[in-house]
Amino acid sequence: MNDQKIHFQITQEQKKSLEQKLGELLKQKITLEQNIKNAETANKAKEEDLYLELLGIFDSLDFLLNYLAENQEINPALLKRLPKNLASIQKKLINILDKRQVKKIPFIEGEPDYSYCQVVDQEIRNDLPDKSVTKVVRIGFTVEGKVLRPIQVIVAKNSSTG
User: Fold this and answer.
1) Contact partners, residue 133, CB within 8 Å, separation at least 6
2) Is 40 helix (H, G, I), strand (E, B) or coil?
């Protein structure tokens, strides 16, 4: 093996330039590290906010479940309010999703658009055109324009189409 050492000579000007560039790189590294730390802190705060919002929904459901468990005879007034209470919980969930840019996919009646619809079943229906949507099983959602979950639908199948 060759034990010769290679020596480089640089001028004072080159040394000064390298030291300056090294100093700039160290400053950039410190700035990037601080930016990462700030982003992590912001993400942690967002995550904690989400948990608190979800706990609010948990509390609403917990209240309903406890009431139903503790009261064998269901109060007719509660039954009357139940759809409103459940709609309120659903609205809280939609608000949580909306804050995070998760949007409902608007559904247009007729034949499904397969770019955002998923057919999960068919039913024999001679009163509708073949492949027409007869029922939306699950609402679909997008996030930042990308399909997060497609709309799940049941479509008509004419008995004559086999």
Assistant:
1) 107, 109, 110, 111, 112, 117, 153, 154, 155, 156
2) helix
Asked if 135 contacts 125 with a C-beta cutoff of 8 angstroms, the reply is no
Compute the distance between CA of residue 150 and CA of residue 162 in angstroms, rounded to an integer: 27
Residue with tokens 């601080």: 34
Q: Which residues contact 114 (CB under 8 A, 6 or more apart)?
A: none
pLDDT band at 146 (very low <50, low <70, confident <90, very high): very high
Q: What is the CA radius of gyration of the chain?
A: 31
Name the percent of the chain in helix, strand, coil, to the closest 5.
Answer: 55, 20, 30
Please give the span between the terminal C-alpha atoms of the chain, in angstroms, as a whole number. Answer: 81
Topology given in CATH for the domain delimited by 104-161: Nucleotide Exchange Factor Grpe; Chain A, domain 2 (2.30.22)
In the predicted model, what is the mean pLDDT of the chain?
Answer: 90
Enumerate residues 6+ apart whose C-beta is below 8 A from 30.
none
Distances (CA, A) of 130 to 19, 45, 86, 139, 158: 75, 50, 35, 22, 6
pTM recorded for the entire structure: 0.65
- Give the Cα separation of 141 and 150 in Å (integer): 7
